[in-house]
Automatic annotation (TrEMBL):
PANTHER family: ABC TRANSPORTER PERMEASE PROTEIN MG189-RELATED-RELATED, SN-GLYCEROL-3-PHOSPHATE TRANSPORT SYSTEM PERMEASE PROTEIN UGPE. Residues 90-291 form the ABC transmembrane type-1 domain. The chain crosses the membrane at residues 31-52, 90-115, 127-148, 168-187, 270-291. Pfam families: BPD_transp_1 (PF00528). This is Carbohydrate ABC transporter permease. SUPFAM superfamilies: MetI-like. It comes from the Bacteria. Residues 1-22 are annotated as: Disordered. Belongs to the binding-protein-dependent transport system permease family. PROSITE patterns: ABC_TM1. It comes from Angustibacter luteus. Its main location: membrane.
Length: 306
């Protein structure tokens, strides 16, 4: 009996499938697929070429050219790790990235809570000010920040130079200043979608502003906070510009800025440099694989919320 019923359902499904008209073939779809495939190959070719040559010996490629087969070795990775002092520079990246991301999200959450949950006259100007800061090119702020960090004196236990220049704090503060605006914009849009009745009920129960923020609104913002944390870790970790601009000692450089240590004064082994670049990219690849769900949700955050 059950077999007959299954055959009947299968036959009905096949008949329904056969009745569904197939979409017409459109040449522009084919052209779109071809275009996207070509663009994907163009994008991935430099990555593939760097990874391939990171496994090749420099003497072999200098003798036979890069368009050849052979000379494969793992020595480039060991040499890059040793010559670049990657252990210290990975630690420097952690020292810069972790506090920058945590403080940025904390400041952005506080500012977004005020903008989204209260009706002050300065809410819109403050949000515009935060967002406009992201539109400034980094190069335009280089000279003012360089002079500022050289003139601000700090205790020697905070910076061995006696000023903010050539310290981790200069890079951390700059990242916080540039990234807080974007995070405030995203978080304020998300907080506006939360029902106003939540805070009204908390007020009726006697909750103050700090308790409304910490115990009512902030726990509901875990999805955007996770997405922003993933994006910020990737952006700040990959930054090259600010560390080179505000640090003079190479032993304080983060991992991306330390890659220039693999370049010689008169000679550059590009196979060695490729191996160092692959090593520097491994943490961000691991973070993307582990948190890709939050990364993708961060790219579409606010797309389906009014």
């Amino acid at each position: 009996m059950s077999t007959a019923t299954g055959d009947t359902r299968t036959g009905a499904r096949d008949a329904a499938t056969a009745d569904v008209p197939k979409p017409p073939h459109r040449p522009r779809h084919t052209l779109l697929y071809v275009f996207l495939s070509v663009m994907a190959l163009i994008w991935i070719f430099p990555v593939f070429w760097a990874v391939l040559n990171s496994f090749r010996d420099y003497d072999f490629t200098s003798a036979h050219g890069y368009v050849s087969i052979g000379g494969y070795t793992f020595h480039n990775y060991a040499d890059a790790w040793r010559q670049g002092d990657f252990g210290q520079h990975f630690l420097n990246s952690v020292i810069i990235t972790v506090p920058a991301v945590v403080i940025t999200l904390l400041f952005a959450s506080c500012a977004a809570f005020v903008v989204a949950r209260f009706s002050f006259w300065f809410n819109l100007p403050m949000l515009i000010l935060f967002t406009a800061a992201n539109l400034l090119p980094q190069q335009a702020m280089l000279v003012p920040l360089y002079r500022l960090y050289n003139s601000v004196e700090v205790p020697f236990w905070l910076s061995d130079s006696g000023t903010l220049y050539n310290s981790y704090w200069a890079v951390i503060i700059t990242h916080i200043a540039f990234q807080t605006g974007f995070c405030t914009f995203v978080l304020s849009n998300y907080m506006k979608t939360l029902p106003q009745e939540l805070t009204e009920a908390a007020v009726v129960d006697g909750a103050g502003v700090l308790r409304q923020f910490w115990q009512v609104i902030l726990p509901l913002c875990r999805p955007p906070l996770a997405a922003l944390a993933t994006l910020e870790i990737t952006w700040i970790y990959n930054d090259f510009f600010w560390a080179v601009a505000f640090m003079s000692q190479g032993d304080k450089f983060p991992i991306t800025s330390s890659l220039q240590n693999l370049r010689g004064q008169f000679f550059t082994d590009y196979n060695l440099l490729s191996a160092g670049s692959v090593l520097a990219a491994i943490p961000t690849i691991i973070i993307f694989v582990l948190l890709q769900k939050q990364f993708v949700s961060g790219l579409t955050l606010g797309a389906n919320k009014g």
